[in-house]
Design brief:
globular; 22 strands; 5-stranded antiparallel beta sheet; 17 helices; 3 domains; alpha+beta
């Protein structure tokens, strides 16, 4: 092996041996019961996932540009699921993952799906993944530019091009929206085209470098709609040429931007784009609350079908497909893991699906994903679902640090983890809070590194109760106006002290205080004033770390019977 090849990561060495596109003819002679490591790498580029430690199980991921497919396609897909006893989960990229496939049927189902006008190409692996948009694109009250034609242009540019199939340094996620208000934030994308206005014309501002745990940053570039495809082509080529192919841990666009800076990457882009960039326009963003039924531009209705945290069975799909065909309604899958029917003349009570899940984004979980620590779909039982639903609080629940539940791009974020730090607990969740996600201003901050699942309901109930006391219009506003004016450590202690004393002490923002009065000393005085006499205060010296460790262990260690949260018995306003 040459020295230059030694520096490449394992995936890159396989690409050097054979392009994934050239591997495709081997499908017909492949022994799916005894796959090698290289086979698994190549198969991902065509939508087939198979883990070495679960070699008898296969997953097939479908690529649905902007989450769209026809009623006939959905019904045919449901028939395939029924025939082979398969099940699906909606992904956070408005696609579908089919589970339950085996060596003897994976190739046949792969052929069926790709023959019905759908595609599995580039849905896994080092590719431009499914390109997403808002479910109300082109038809909603907030829509200014229809993005779907651009999505299809972008997909056509890369989908079956040998140069790009599986050959990028790492995956690229792309989002585009011509709406001034979106159902779900898209700042987790590597490349995001956000609605903007400049000199009286609507177009898109460019954001780059986002991922599930980071917010995409402004590139200070404005594009008219007909300029997007040229820019996208330049972007893909620039990343193809200049992205890192060394350590897999550092190959995402985010790390390239960290290494050479936004201006450095823009130079590579300009070289491929071939003309000067126009500086960014004015973002067109507003916060909106979307209901189960929305009135569209043409006066018809849309209906949001809530899935079971992304899980949908064949019977449900068939019912939705038949209804959509009868009503001549359009079907769109959202990146919120819900299914939308657009163009209805009247409400469709027959499809009512009150599952209290429409603002909760959950990853596939350990039942389906080898990287997840917990069966996230079931661990949502630990959440105060009624309160979350009542206030439309956006929750992202990931099974591991990869963050497929986009936990740092929601109001409250959770990572399910294993722990023995608190005794014989079933596990726990890391809790994030404070994301200002609508306009991509900030990702969520760590509030608690670990909360045992037995206590998660109590902790989240307290957080929501304090939000209710704030009088803020929504949880994101509460984050901006109150939570983010304090340090994470102080907030954690404040919540823990409320739990310990069974109180509900309303916390007012300190943003209007003079700078000299803010910071650690001010936060320490607040705790001393309102929790006078509590033992944890003696542990606070130069920081809050020791007090946090001791108090959390005292409250959450499991000894015999699980302790139960008691409702607040006092209400105070603190300043």
């Amino acid at each position: 092996m040459q020295e230059s090849e030694r520096k490449l990561n394992k995936r890159e060495r396989y690409k050097a041996q054979m392009r994934p596109y050239d591997y495709l003819p081997e499908f017909e002679t492949l022994d799916f019961e005894s796959l090698g490591e290289g086979d698994r790498y190549y198969l991902q580029d065509f939508g087939i996932f198979n883990a070495e430690f679960a070699e008898e199980e296969f997953t097939l991921r479908l690529r649905l540009p902007a989450g769209r497919l026809g009623a006939g396609q959905l019904q045919e897909l449901a028939q395939i699921l029924t025939e082979h006893d398969l099940h699906i989960i909606l992904t956070a990229r408005a696609g579908l993952q089919i589970f339950g496939l085996e060596a003897e049927n994976i190739l046949g189902v792969w052929k069926q799906v790709n023959a019905m006008g759908l595609s599995t190409w580039q849905s896994f692996g080092d590719n431009v993944r499914n390109i997403v948009s808002d479910v109300y694109d082109g038809v909603g009250q907030y829509n200014m530019v229809e993005a779907y034609p651009i999505v299809m242009q972008m997909q056509e540019h890369i989908l079956k091009v040998p140069r790009y199939v599986g050959m990028l340094p790492r995956r690229i996620s792309v989002g585009i929206s011509g709406n001034s208000a979106n159902v779900t934030s898209m700042f987790a994308n590597d490349l995001y085209f956000a609605l903007a206005e400049k000199e009286g014309l609507f177009g898109f501002n460019v954001y780059m470098g986002g991922k599930n745990t980071e917010v995409a940053r402004s590139a200070d570039i404005f594009l008219l709609p007909d300029e997007v495809i040229g820019f996208f082509a330049a972007f893909v080529e620039a990343f193809y040429k200049h992205g890192s192919r060394a350590s897999r841990a550092k190959t995402r666009l985010f790390y390239l931007l960290e290494e050479i800076g936004m201006d450095g990457f823009k130079k590579h882009l300009a070289s491929e784009y071939g003309k000067p960039f126009t500086s960014g326009g004015k973002l067109q963003f507003e916060k909106a609350r979307f209901e189960t039924y929305e009135t569209l531009k043409d006066g018809t209705l849309s209906f949001c079908y809530e899935t079971d945290f992304g899980r949908v069975d064949a019977k449900e799909l068939t019912k939705i497909a038949v209804f959509a065909a009868e009503q001549k309604a359009e079907i769109r899958f959202g990146i919120d893991q819900n299914i939308y029917l657009l163009g209805l003349k009247e409400k469709c009570d027959a499809l009512s699906s009150p599952k209290l899940s429409n603002t909760i984004l959950a990853c596939a979980g350990s039942e389906y994903c080898p990287f997840s620590f917990w069966n996230i779909k079931d661990e949502t039982a630990y959440l105060p679902l009624e309160k979350i639903h009542e206030h439309r609080i956006e929750v992202g629940f990931s099974g591991c640090a990869k963050g497929c539940g986009r936990h740092r791009h929601t109001d409250i974020g959770l990572i399910g983890l294993k722990t023995n730090s608190f005794g014989a607990t079933e596990g726990g969740a890391r809790v994030f809070i404070g994301a200002e996600h609508t306009e991509g201003l900030s990702a969520g901050r760590t509030l608690f590194p670990m909360v045992p699942l037995e206590h998660l309901h109590a902790v989240l109930s307290l957080i929501i109760a304090l939000y209710e006391e704030s009088g803020c219009s929504d949880f994101e506003a509460y984050s901006t106006q109150t939570l983010n004016t304090f340090s994470e450590e102080f907030l954690a202690l404040w919540f823990l002290a409320n739990l310990q004393t069974h109180q509900l002490l309303k916390l007012l923002p300190n943003e209007n205080l003079p700078t000299a009065q803010k910071g650690f000393e001010y936060e320490k005085r607040l705790l001393e004033k309102y929790f006078e006499g509590l033992d944890f205060l003696d542990l606070i010296e130069d920081d809050f770390s020791e007090a946090l460790t001791v108090l959390s262990r005292e409250l959450w260690t499991i000894k015999g019977e699980d302790p139960h949260y008691k409702p607040p018995i006092e209400r105070h306003v603190c300043r």
